[in-house]
Amino acid sequence: MYGGFLIRRQKYLRRIKNPPYFEAMTKDDCYQVGHITKTHGINGEVVFFLDVDDAKEYADIDSVLVEVKGQLTPYFIESIAIVKGSRAIVAFEDVDTIEQAERFIGCGLWLPLANLEAIEDETRFYFHEIIGFRVVDAQKGPLGIVKAVYTMATQDLIAMDYEGNEVLIPINSDIVPSINRAEKQLNVVLPDGLLEIYTSDAASEKPEVDGDEEAEDEETDED
User: pTM of the entire structure?
Assistant: First the structure.
């Protein structure tokens, strides 16, 4: 996206025909590729929504970590068919009935970070890797910390914590030209007025107490 400048965290999946058993893996070791939306048919199949640039790149994975009650549990894939863009119909091994499949609805899908190819180019990055990076503007200097990245159909956004406010920074090569991995720093050139949109004086939003009401309160207290 953006002329090859940015890539989603999932784009460079290293193809591993027989990945290792995902024993005792946590979310810190993994990245999320999507979630399960519903069941399909009566034989235990489910539908994946793959939040990736190209779902076809995942057409040959043979296992995935499913987030069940906050825990990542490995499941081997018996078959997978990519349909309708970002969706796939999937059959897990040893899941043979709709009753078994229903418990997966809404569960997140994860893969190990080790599956991702390293990026050395400082003008490109995986979205997940910049969480916690310090945002430094070319004019204003250090601003805040990256708290999240929102992937949206029209515009991906970086959420920065700035003076107690969430500031949303559009992701493109003009506004986010580079990162410094060694310093955990995200270099930005913010448009004029962007910070001011999110940092208007909070005091001005508080309702003012009318002088007449104050006087009435004082009279009531004296009585």
Answer: 0.62
